Amino acid sequence: MSKLNALIAGSTGYIGIQLVKLLLKHPNINIKYLCGNTSKGKSISYYDKIFKKKKLPKIIKFSKNLLEDTNLVFTALPNGQAQKISNKLLKKNILIDLSADFRLRSAKEYLKWYKIKHSSKNNIKKSIYALPELSKKKLKNYKIISCPGCYPTSVLLPLIPLVKNNLIQINNIIIDSKSGYSGAGRGVHKKYANKNLYESLSAYGVSSHRHNSEIEQELNSYTKKNIKFSFTPHLSPMFRGILSTIYLDLNKNISVKHINSNLKKFYKKDLFVKILPINSHISTNDVINTNYCHISVCKSKYKNKLIILSAIDNLIKGGAGQAVQNLNYYFGFNVKKGLV
Fold it and tell me: Do 168 and 279 share a domain, yes or no?
């Protein structure tokens, strides 16, 4: 099979840089175009010296004519920009979006949470919320593949099987998530200039973080009841990684062992989700620079309660790696390509 030509719009942000690194390793992908606005005319090695000896195109401004010899369009742009590009897609193009532009199924909800009027409402129905392990068999039916946010990835992977199989109470789920500051993008140092990022832990977006909408939408799609949860994100003094700690109440006659075996069974064919032995103490260090999600089911001091730990690399499994994983499933490539 000849290589697929890829265009990456937004190639110089933390996620974009990570995506370029992964696609360079992918034997079926040719990086045809790198696109940017403020970075136009520069070499991508300006943003990461690792590309110094790599043969990569100079960064140019996106235009519709670039789509004519492009198979895959990756968008790692500020919210709202992928919608504009989606309106210009040709029949041959598949869009894999790493922003939030197509994560929500309702334009009204998108406006509510992102304060941006959706400019591509007709394309929402052509898109799929693509958490790879759950959507891999449906991808081929869609032109737009929307990759989940980093926090939701760490939360939904352990929770969806439990909600789907009615193993836990869904009226008071507590989610405490801590992320490396790269999750806030290159502007993080300006945005949080007074937070001393390198030496302090900061809570933010309490009860109002945009990823609430994603988590609620996806969990509610697996139950007829209304999920009630509290989600609090934190910026941690590290560059990358997410550790989510999830506090749950068990349904009657459900044990910790039952929960662990259910998750193992659910993900037994999924390479990148590892269910560890009960009470394993995991850290972000276990998954940094990989596409893996490590999940540990832990006992609480109370018989009817449970604690789940979930760790990912926010730039890979929570971002660029997930995009490559979706690419592999869509085209029937070995899921390891570009990732292992």
Answer: yes
Q: Are 281 and 296 in contact (CB under 8 A)?
A: yes
Lookup: tokens for 129: 């919320």
- Residue numbers of the chain with a pLDDT score lower than 70: 1, 187-195
CB 240 within 8 A of CB 277: no
Report pLDDT digits (tens) over 101-145: 999 999 999 999 999 999 999 999 999 999 999 999 999 999 999
**Is residue 45 a part of any domain in this protein?**
yes
The stretches of 172-298 forming alpha helices (DSSP H) are 188-191, 211-220, 256-266
**Distance of alpha carbon 59 from alpha carbon 41, whole angstroms:** 5
Distances (CA, A) of 333 to 109, 138, 318, 325: 34, 15, 20, 9
Query: In whole angstroms, what is the distance from residue 37 CA to residue 316 CA?
Result: 24
Other C-beta atoms closer than 10 Å to the C-beta of 332 total: 9
242 three-state secondary structure: strand
Are residues 189 and 270 located together in one domain of the fold?
A: yes
Residues 185, 244: contact at Cβ < 8 Å? no
User: What is the pLDDT, as a whole number, of residue 193?
Assistant: 65
User: Looking at residue 22, what is its pLDDT?
Assistant: 98
- Using CA atoms, how far apart are residues 19 and 42, in angstroms rounded to an integer? 18
Residues with a catalytic annotation lie at: 150
Report the CATH number at residue 325.
3.40.50.720
Torsion sign (Cα): 216, 218, 224, 227: negative
Measured between alpha carbons, how far is residue 286 from residues 34, 100, 280, 338 in Å? 31, 27, 12, 19
Question: What was the pLDDT predicted at 11?
Answer: 94
CB 23 within 8 A of CB 8: yes
| Cβ proximity of 5 and 69 under 8 Å | yes
| Domain of 129, in residue numbers | 4-148+318-331
